[in-house]
Structures are given as C-alpha cells and as structure tokens.
Amino acid sequence: HLHSIAGASAVHRHFRSRVGADSVKPLDGVRILDLTRVLAGPFATMNLGDLGAEVIKVEKPGAGDDTRSWGPPFLGMESVYFLSVNRNKKSIAVNMKNPKGAKIIKELAAVCDVFVENYVPGKLAEMGLGYEDINKIAPHIVYCSITGYGQTGPKFQRAGYDSVAAAVSGLLHITGPQEGEPVRPGVAMTDLATGLYAYGAIMAGLLQRYKTGKGMHIDCNLLSSQVACLTYVASTYLNCKTESKRWGTAHASIVPYQAFKTKDGYIVVGAGNDQQFATVCKILNLPEISQDSRYKNNQQRVLNRKELTEILTARFLEKETTKWLELFEGSGVPYGPINSMQQVFSDPQVLHNGLVMEMDHPSVGKIAVPGPAVRYSQFEVSEPKPPPLVGQHTLDVLKDTLGYKDDALEELLSSGAIVQHERM
Exposed, middle or buried: residue 394 (CB in 10 Å: 0-12, 13-18, 19+)? Predict the structure, then answer.
C-alpha cells in the first residue's frame, strides 16, 4: 500500500499505464475500512469513495447501519436516509463482539490505508480495535475517530448527536426567528460539517504519510467542528464580548440581507454595498429611500433596520415572486427565491450542475440522490456504485482482499462471526 512517496508514484504509474490518465481518480488504490454509522462518518467516506477509494463498510449483522431503519420513507426495504449517504461502498456484516469477527477487522486494517470509526471513546479499545491496537499491526494506518466531544476531556464519553452538539456549540442559539424559539437547521449541519472536516483530515493524513511513511490518529468531533464553523459570530463575541442573537433570515451586520414575503412566496435579497442598495431602491421604485440620510450607508441602515425593513417589506408584498425575479434579473444584486424541493430539482442551474445522481439499486431498482458538489477537470466523478445491502460483499471481500478459502468462510458463517446477504 501507499506507505511513501515512492509507493504513491508507483501506484500512479500503475494506474496511468492501466487505464489512461483521464480516468485516474485521486484515491484509486486507497482502501478504507469504514466502521462508521449514521451521518457524519458515512458522509465523509462516501465523499472519499466518490474520489476512487475502495470503501469497505463494516455493519452489524442483521440490522446494519442505524439509518437503515430510519423511516418512513422506505423504497422497498431500504430507508431513503441510508441511500442518501452510502454510495460507492462495499458492505461486510461482521460481529465484532465475536473474537473471530474482531480478528477479521484487524486483518483488514493491516491491508487498508485508512480506518474510520465513530464509537464512543474506549469502546473499540475494549475489543482490541482502538488506535493503539491497530497502530501496532498497521503503523501506516490513518486512523480517524469521529465522536461527539473529542477523545479526552470532561464530556468525552457522552454520545454525540447532531442536535445536542448543535445546541452545546451555540448553533441553535443563533438559529431561528428573531423573537422566537431556537430552531434546528433543516438538515444535520453539525454532522455534515464534521463529515467534511473528517474528509479533509483523512486526505491530509494520507498526504502526511506519503511524506513520512507513518500513519496517525485523527480526532474529529461534532463540538469542535461546529464551534470552528461559528466564524464571525464567535469572533464578534471573543473580541467585542457582544452576545449573539437569532436573526431569522436577516443578518446582524448587513441591511437589507434577508427574505421578504411576496404576494405568493418569498424572495431573498442582499445589498452588500451602497451601490447595490441604490439598485434595490430603483427596482422597488423607492428612489426617495436611497437619498434618505438614515439609509445612506450600511452602518446607518443597520442602526435604522426596523424602519427600513418595514418599508421594503410592504413593497415586496405587492408583487408575485416571479415578477420580482424578472425585475432583479441582471441587476448585479444578489437575489433568489426560497425554493421547495420540487423547485430546487427543476432549477436550470441545479440541473446544469449535474447534481442528481442516478443508480440501479440491487433490490429497489432506479434510485436518485444528490451527487458530489465538486467537479474536476482531470477526471469524472461518475458511474457510482449503489448503496449496498447489509453484508452484500462479505464473502467477496474476505476472499479477494484477505485470501480466505471456502472452508474457513463456511466456519465463520456457521459461527455467526460473519453474515453474507442472500442476494448476490
């Protein structure tokens, strides 16, 4: 495996000669042992799989990943939640509490480049699968742990759930209507941010290993990820000791920059500078407002937010969203409607950006999920493998990757250490 720069370039030469430079992906030849469940970890490993990594997802026999039961909605027996974040993975069903199962995980770790897990700290060590254990047999391993609060400290053994971490980190304190209750964002942004941090950290771990030949332990957690993402809200508190508050769709430091109700929906408009504000006034046919000294610059507009917002709100209510969109077209002012899912997936830019990825699933037929966000000039992120059934690849992986023979596999199957899905 890729234990050094020399190893990396050898793999590079191998793939160039085998398939031609244009179809080489950055993580071709990188093998990932994925012990994560739910969202943050699976989102990270799916993104790595999109870049060509071989992702071996280890699941509990029977139930598998927790999200397989999160529904409705289901397509056949498959939860739509699970399908959204598990493409480009192989599933093996292993009972890690069985010593034979734990042994298989160790054997796989020895031939993998990356080990990703999201167990409560100490849980895997009890099974002999903690970082210290794996590092002894695979010193090249990039071992990434994803937890709620980190590997040490006063809260390290608490379970990590998105909404709780979002609360503790202050995200819920700053999200919601101005005079209303705290609101959880519509998707689990704390989990997803942690998944993206883990994805970048694993890439950094691999690059570091190419330089030094050594693996490492990576500590990713929901709390640290979300606090890091507080950016300017945190900076305002840390430097000015100003407590933050909820702004609905508005912004603490820019006015106008929010959603306005129209005759039949909503439009979001932002004026990031005085020129843009003058353009907004022109489009709304409110020339006297742009001349008013109370609104002449952003600082004044923030101070006089209430009066200005009332005037703009009344005007936006006079026309339908589509009419306002026509009037703002080409103005140079940032604007857009608040779209429903139906509107999102019929938006011409969403379609142009190729954000819908279709696959043929082994038991439910054609499925569609949101595809990768990033495009690359040198290779295509295409031909995805559908999310696996629980244990769909157990025997394949043990035969092809570890060289197990049929009699040994039979013994493991009968002991319950492993399970193979009946559909192949």
Answer: buried
148: domain range? Answer: 31-230+357-419
Give residue 23's pLDDT: 80
Q: Give me the amino acid identity at 176.
A: G
User: For residue 81, is it within any domain?
Assistant: yes
Q: Strand, coil or helix: what is 92?
A: strand
361 shares a domain with 287 = no
CA distance 317 to 26: 50
- Establish whether 191 is a catalytic residue: yes
The CA distance from 367 to 424, in Å, is 19
Mean pLDDT lowest for which of 9-18, 97-106, 304-313, 357-366?
A: 9-18
Clarify whether residues 210 and 271 are in a common domain.
no
Q: Is there a contact between 262 and 316 (Cβ–Cβ < 8 Å)?
A: yes
Q: Are 270 and 257 in contact (CB under 8 A)?
A: yes
How does residue 15 score in pLDDT terms, banded at 50, 70 and 90?
very low
CA distances from 23 to 17, 46, 132, 381 (A): 11, 19, 37, 10
Q: Which amino acid is at 32?
A: I
Q: Which strands sit side by side in the sheet containing 257-261, from one edge to the other?
A: 257-261, 266-270, 335-337
Residue 65 has pLDDT above 90, yes or no: yes
Answer yes or no: is pLDDT of 10 > 90.
no
- For 155-185, letters b (16+ CB in 10 Å) and e give ebebebebebbbbbbbbbbbbbeeeeeeebe
Nearest to 81 by CA among 6, 22, 170, 162: 162
Predicted local confidence at residue 20, as pLDDT: 52
The pLDDT score that the predictor gives to residue 321 is 97
Q: Which of residues 382 and 31 earns the better pLDDT score?
A: 31
Catalytic, out of 28, 133, 191, 360: 191
Tell whether 277 is covered by a domain.
yes
Of 92, 89, 112, 96, the residue nearest 42 (C-alpha): 89
With contact defined as beta carbons under 8 Å apart, do 96 and 58 qualify? yes
How many domains does one find in the chain?
A: 2
Who's near 51: CB < 8 A, 6+ residues apart?
25, 26, 27, 381
The CA-based angle 238-201-401, given to 5 degrees, is 160
DSSP string computed for 355-399: -EEEEEETTTEEEEEE--S---SS----SPPPPPPTTTTHHHHHH
